[in-house]
Amino acid sequence: MEQIKFFSGEQIPLEMHKVKIVQKINLLPVEQRKAAMEEAGNNTFLLQNRDVYLDMLTDSGVNAMSDRQQAAMLIADDSYAGSETFTRMANKLREVFGMDYFLPVHQGRAAENVIGQTFVEPGAIIPMNYHFTTTKAHITINGGLVEEIITDEGLKVTSDHPFKGNMDLDKLNGLIDKHGADKIAFVRMEAGTNLIGGQPFSLENLRDIREICDKHGLMLVLDASLLSDNLYFIKEREACCRDMSIREITLELSGLCDIIYFSARKLGCARGGGICVKEEAVFNKMRELIPLYEGFLTYGGMSVREMEAITIGMDEAMDEEIICQGPKFISFMVDELVKRGIPVVTPAGGLGCHVNAMEFLDHIPQNQYPAGALATALYIASGVRGMERGTMSEQRNPDGSEEISNMELLRLAVPRRVFTLSQIKYVIDRLEWLYENRNLVEGLTFVEEPKTLRFFFGRLEPVSPWQEKLVEKFRKDFGDSL
Ligand code: F0G
After folding, report:
1. Of 136, 164, 266, 278, which is the active-site residue?
2. In this structure, are strands 273-277 and 259-263 parallel, antiparallel, or unpaired?
3. What's the topology of domain 2-59+322-478?
4. In the predicted model, is pLDDT for residue 1 greater than 70?
5. Ligand 1 centroid to 188 CA: how many Å?
6. pLDDT digit string, tens, across residues 223-232
7. 225 Cβ inside 6 Å of ligand 1
8. Of 424, 425, 266, 456, whose CA–CA distance to 351 is shortest?
9. Residue 63: which residues within 8 A CB-CB, separation 6 or more?
10. CB 366 less than 6 A from any atom of ligand 1
11. Amino acid 4: pLDDT
12. What angle do the packed helices 246-254 and 203-216 form, to 10 degrees?
């Protein structure tokens, strides 16, 4: 899409929507922010939203809905079975993905539960470009083993590679040769690869993977939760797709897959999820689990109002002018931080801006969670809530040792059409201040550590009273400013 040019020469993203409904948010004084962080066990998941100024924890279920989505919610058909709302949603997904079969689920991880229980047997191997936390948990709980075979470029924090989410084809062939295709449950590709910074894969890469899958009779499963960002990047960055519409690219991608599942908290900008399936036999294998875990086959645990919103949201996911808003704001934020010398993941991806905590706080060892520490420091400095994506988000090894993460990222999600440019500029300003004062920040240690998905509700404390010093410095530099 053409960049809109300004007479002044300034390059800023321009919103292609206007604000119709707003929510008041609070900015607490820095002392109260420190107290709130303590109360939350130094885990941003445990903060109360009333204490948060800009909530950049996630883009899950918090993207702004459109007027058309809100309007559609009023015509939902709430019959338990055979609802018109389901038919509309199923038809829309058929139109968008060209797959005949659809199973509704209440959110993305529920799809992972159903797929995991159906296809993952003890000892099975699941190659993927990169894992997502809930995906790995569902595969592991069924006795499977995740094999991450992202290209080496994908793990470089700074790069100019346009498709850091690509799978390494040699590694895929190597895994098949080593274990035999029989051991492989399916190959999983994640669009907009979440944990490495919202990085896309290319259409060409997916085509090559399909070829390998065909050769060995393997299923290809796409996690499409972050598909809209990936679609935008394919259109922007992949020469063969420049003249294709987003709808055409989508059909091309989905034609290569056997199963597409998604969290509609991201794709479709509402709350729910789904599994789209190409073949009836594969669909039948999973179908029984829906009434068991989710709800009847025509709602799958979703509210019918949300389903109507997803149906419109899927149409909007095919509109380039709508899906470009996230990546453009993120790219602005990343560029401004790079100008200030602040280490971030490049190139800018989807989902949000990812600050490289390993470099930002290179004096903190990974077993003291530099990304987690940075999340608490940024909240204290600004009231902005981000999310740790590093060692804290990993699960300990069976022998109790830390599984040290490849990257230590502070994810600052940019929910679509939610924040204004001045709010983004505020985050940049406070990050710059924090970077100047990074030597004040130290690590964290667990005081309560759950066994699974510990980052959701584990509680930590600072290894020293460094947060007090940070507050003192804030007061010194900003006077009585919030
Ligand atoms: N797959 C991907 C790529 C995701 O990003 C998520 C969720 C899921 C699956 C699970 O979906 O939350 O609807 O159950 N990501 C959220 C996040 C939690 O904050 O990035 P869910």
Report:
1. 266
2. antiparallel
3. Aspartate Aminotransferase, domain 1 (3.90.1150)
4. no
5. 15
6. 999 999 999 9
7. yes
8. 266
9. 266, 269, 415, 416, 417, 418
10. no
11. 84
12. 20
Asked whether this chain's domains 2-59+322-478 and 81-318 adopt the same fold, the reply is no
CATH architecture entry for 81-318? 3-Layer(aba) Sandwich (3.40)
Look at residue 2 in the predicted model and tell me its pLDDT: 63
Coil, strand or helix: which one is 12?
coil
Strand 384-385 relative to strand 444-448: parallel, antiparallel, unpaired?
unpaired
**Does 60 sit in the ligand 1 pocket, CB within 6 Å?**
yes
Q: Where are the domains of the chain?
A: 2-59+322-478, 81-318
Q: Could you give the count of Cα atoms lying within 13 Å of 281 in the half-sphere of its Cβ?
A: 1
Pocket test for ligand 1, best of 112, 194, 227, 414 (most atoms within 8 A of CB): 194
CA of 56 to the centre of ligand 1 (A): 15
CA-proximal residue: ligand 1, atom 11 (nearest) = 108
Quick check: CB of 113 below 6 Å from ligand 1? no
C-alpha of residue 264 to centroid of ligand 1, in Å: 9
> Is any atom of ligand 1 closer than 6 Å to the C-beta of 263?
yes
Residue 341, both tokens: 């010398």
Q: How far apart are CA 234 and CA 90, in angstroms?
A: 26
pLDDT at residue 395, as a whole number: 86
Q: What is the pLDDT of residue 452?
A: 82
Asked if 119 is an active-site residue, the reply is no
pLDDT, averaged across the chain? 97
The residue length of the chain stands at 482
Torsion-angle region of 364 (φ positive above 0: left; ψ -120 to 50: alpha; else: beta): beta
Placement of tokens 């056997």 in the chain: 258
For ligand 1, whether the C-beta of 83 sits within 6 Å is no
pTM: 0.96
Is the separation of the CB atoms in 326 and 414 below 8 Å? yes
Q: What is the dihedral of CA 471, 473, 479, 482, to 10 degrees?
A: -40
**CA 298, 300, 302, 306 torsion-angle sign:** negative
Question: Which of 67, 68, 78, 80 is an active site residue?
Answer: 80
